């Protein structure tokens, strides 16, 4: 449900010195803002032809919220093509902050225009005691749950894609690898400004140095992400798709790279590795766009072109 009372955006904290309590308070306040009507001018209005609702998914040891987008019922109470729609499992960005509601603009339009059922995972956010592995399990477990109950969700399990942005792009890339290893055939993976290197080498790219102080992602946030996602004793390479031993046989990939993004070279390098492994990949660069641009259509004019490209790619692979 959209927040009806006035909601203001909290000031950005000092990510270099933030405490656990301050992090939790900040992300709760920031996520209230991102889910509110006040944020629509920046995050965009959802497609009026979409039905959007929260649902809880019963997973091993936990219930996890997902935000579900479908074509809205027609005048006679039915949804055109309601059963057997393609499935897109989406994961939002933000890592230690963020909510599926911030992606209503892109996801609702995909649901209506493909058409498809889009299930956006409200994954556990990284924090002390909740590392990257938890969020990665959430993305994978939701995918498996929906496919196991495909008839109840009204989806065609043979027409399934994963889609993620930034940290969500990382989870989606990991999910695509796990799907291949489990014998689950995905039709596509869409990775938007993905973070694919969570090792200390994640900073050793020209784009990091060139765009280290961009408004939507700066070095203090990246350092906090690394500390939380891969605490001491974690094998960060195991959660870094860039270092996967075998990237062959994966679902065809669309990698969307905004050029004014510290993580731009992460996406480019991953596209190179996928291509070298024989996995079909298309690299779509948006000149001048910054990190998280797809979630900011109110201030990022390039967001619409990126959404159109994602829609065309998914339509080609999911409606064949």
Report on this model:
- There is one protein chain.
- By secondary structure, the protein is an alpha/beta fold.
- It is globular, with a radius of gyration of 18 Å.
- The protein is 34% helix and 22% strand.
- The protein has one domain: Alpha/Beta hydrolase fold, catalytic domain (Rossmann fold), CATH 3.40.50.1820.
- The two termini are 35 Å apart.
- The strands form 2 sheets. The chain has an 8-stranded mixed β-sheet with strand order 1-2-4-3-5-6-9-10, with helices on both faces. A two-stranded antiparallel ribbon has the order 7-8.
- It contains 10 helices and 10 strands.
Number of DSSP E strands? 10
CA gyration radius, whole angstroms: 18 Å
Detail the poorly predicted runs: none
Coarse shape: globular
State the name of the first-level CATH class.
Alpha Beta
The main sheet comes to: 8 strands, mixed
Strand order of the largest sheet: 1-2-4-3-5-6-9-10
CATH homologous superfamily placement: Alpha/Beta hydrolase fold, catalytic domain
The CATH topology is what?
Rossmann fold
CATH architecture: 3-Layer(aba) Sandwich
Fraction of helical residues: 25-40%
Number of helices: 10
What oligomeric state do these chains adopt? single chain
Please tell me the total number of domains: 1
Strand content: 15-25%
**SSE run:** HHEEEHEHHEHEHEEHEHEH
Note the topology.
Blueprint: H1 20-34, H2 40-43, E1 50-59, E2 62-71, E3 85-91, H3 104-113, E4 117-121, H4 132-148, H5 150-153, E5 155-165, H6 167-181, E6 188-192, H7 206-210, E7 213-214, E8 217-218, H8 219-229, E9 253-260, H9 264-276, E10 281-290, H10 303-318
Parallel strand pairs: 3-4, 3-5, 5-6, 6-9, 9-10
Antiparallel strand pairs: 1-2, 2-4, 7-8
């Amino acid at each position: 449900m959209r927040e009806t009372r006035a909601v203001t955006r909290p000031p950005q904290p000092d990510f270099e010195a933030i405490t656990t309590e301050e992090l939790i308070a900040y992300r709760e306040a920031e996520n209230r803002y991102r889910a509110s009507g006040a944020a629509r001018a920046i995050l965009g209005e959802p497609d009026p032809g979409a039905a959007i609702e929260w649902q809880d998914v019963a997973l091993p040891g936990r219930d996890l919220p997902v935000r579900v987008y479908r074509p809205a019922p027609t005048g006679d109470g039915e949804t055109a093509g309601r059963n057997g729609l393609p499935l897109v499992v989406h994961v939002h960005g933000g890592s230690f902050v963020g909510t599926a509601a911030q992606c209503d603009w892109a996801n609702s339009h995909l649901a209506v225009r493909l058409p498809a059922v889009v299930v956006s995972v409200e994954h556990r956010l990284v924090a002390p005691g909740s590392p990257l592995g938890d969020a990665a399990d959430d993305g994978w477990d939701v995918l498996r749950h929906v496919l196991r109950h495909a008839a109840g969700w009204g989806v065609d399990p043979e027409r399934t894609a994963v889609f993620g942005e930034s940290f969500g792009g990382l989870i989606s890339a990991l999910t695509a690898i796990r799907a291949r290893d489990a014998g689950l055939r995905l039709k596509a993976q869409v990775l938007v400004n993905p973070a694919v290197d969570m090792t200390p080498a994640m900073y050793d790219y020209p784009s990091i140095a060139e765009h280290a102080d961009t408004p939507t992602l700066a070095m203090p946030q990246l350092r906090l992400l690394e500390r939380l996602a891969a605490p001491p004793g974690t094998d960060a390479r195991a959660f870094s798709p860039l270092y996967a031993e075998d990237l062959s046989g994966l679902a065809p990939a669309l990698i969307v790279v905004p050029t004014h993004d510290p993580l731009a070279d992460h996406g480019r390098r991953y596209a190179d590795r996928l291509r070298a492994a024989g996995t079909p990949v298309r690299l779509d660069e948006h000149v001048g766009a910054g990190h998280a641009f797809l979630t900011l259509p109110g201030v990022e004019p390039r967001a619409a072109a990126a959404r159109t490209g994602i829609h065309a790619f998914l339509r080609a692979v999911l409606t064949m």
